Amino acid sequence: MTRPLKLKEIEFTWHEMHGTPVTSFICTSNRLLAITEEDDDEEEGRKQNILHVSEDGVQWKEWGPVPINDCFCLNDKFIIIKQDSRSKCDVAYYSTDLIHWNKIDVDCTEVKKIIWTGNYYVLFGRYFTSTEYSEEGLFFSEKKYFSCPKPAIFTSKKLEGPWHEETLSEGSFGYGEFVTDFIWFNNKFIFVGAIRGELRKDDKKNGEDFIYSGTKLTKLNRYSLETGHCYGGRSLTTGMGKCFCLSCDNSIFITKDGIHWSSLSGTFIAKDGIHWSSLEVKPRIGDDRYSFLDTRRFIIARLNARWIGGLHVTLDGMKWKELNLPNGYEYFELMAYWNDILFIKNSKGKVAAGIRKH
User: Distances from the Cα of 198 to the Cαs of 84, 137, 176, 195, 229, in angstroms?
Assistant: First the structure.
């Protein structure tokens, strides 16, 4: 049995990767894949994506050209969600070899996320409804329209289908409420979204962020997030047995059960994992996948909050330790964590590999 880590023990030794900069990493159960963009030998001026394979994250072998530059792996199958050239909306494809791709055919405007619950796949998509509201002035009233994204959930035992559209609980996602993200956590379906103040039908005119969650899609409960002023810039992610609701402002909400949410206002930080000081402001974690990584033993995040910056690690989401960064990587994005190696990319496109000290 693996011994639980202590926060002060987590450190990395950094080495910059040489050669063509890596565009993306793809983590599988037994191999790490890397994609680079290189010149096409057959046509001058054209670029091609080259796949590299590693069994340890250190030694690499070139595999050959592939038609994509990024994707993710789920149950040893590859999935890509990208914009369709005709509809300009996101659609999903899957592959077993990174060469031949099959479209996942579902009846929704756009595909946002595909996850595995342990028993079946869940596809989170959205469709759009036109919502009317009035903008009131001192001497005028003008009708306006808002394109409101609503959730669509599909399930399947296999990526190739058939996909079944699920029924959502009656009365959920009401007038003017739009959904920004979805996740499966603690055997619950969880949605995060918002409603703008001018779209509300009650007496309150301030905007509101909300959560819908439940063990059944037909019985979802609504919870309000008191957030201040940021409405709709939220995403959901999980790590170390908790679910995090991340926002575009300086607020993070956390839950252990998907029902009771609390703000991370009591967050602490340390440079050495020993001496702790309270944050003057709440940490901000960006809502993209390049700012938050769950390694299954700890969480690594890029925190941004006034005087706080750089790379941080936590075991519980409450206490954060600042990690050392290699020179030239003050501005960076997280790329992957695999086989105790952390990969980051700096603003110049160079990639550094941090090997965890044991």
Answer: 32, 13, 9, 8, 14
Rounded to 5 degrees, what angle do the CA atoms 205, 208, 214 make?
140
pLDDT value at position 200? Answer: 59
Which parts of the chain have pLDDT scores under 50? 266, 268, 270, 279-283, 287, 305-308
Residue 280's pLDDT is what? Answer: 44
Bridge partners of 165, per DSSP, are 154
Q: What is the pLDDT of residues 264-290, one digit of tens each?
A: 654 545 455 555 555 444 445 554 555
pLDDT in tens, 160-219: 999 999 999 887 887 778 888 999 999 999 998 887 656 556 666 667 788 899 999 999
pTM above 0.90, yes or no: no
Residue 73 near residue 26 (C-beta atoms within 8 A): yes
**What contacts 318, CB < 8 A, 6 or more positions away?**
264, 266, 267, 268
Cis peptide before 162 (omega within 30 of 0): yes
pLDDT of residue 288: 53
Distance from C-alpha of 109 to C-alpha of 65, rounded to nearest angstrom: 31
Q: What is the 3-state secondary structure (H, E, C) of the chain?
A: CCCCCCHHHCCEEEEECCCCCEEEEEECCCCEEEEEEEECCCCCCCEEEEEEEECCCCCCEEEEEECCCCCEEECCEEEEEEECCCCCCEEEEEECCCCCCEECCCCCCEEEEEEECCCCEEEEEEEEEEEEEEEECCCCEEEEEEEEEEEEEEEECCCCCCCEECCCCCCCCCCCEEEEEEEEECCEEEEEEEECHHHCCCCCCCCEEEEEEEEECCEEEEEEECCCCCCCCCEEEEECCEEEEECCCCCEEEECCCCCCEEHHHCEEECCCCCCEECCCCCEECCCCCCEEECCCCEEEEEEECCECCEEEECCCCEEEECCCCCCCCCEEEEEEECCEEEEEECCCCEEEEEECC
pLDDT at 281: 42
In this prediction, residue 139 carries a pLDDT of 63
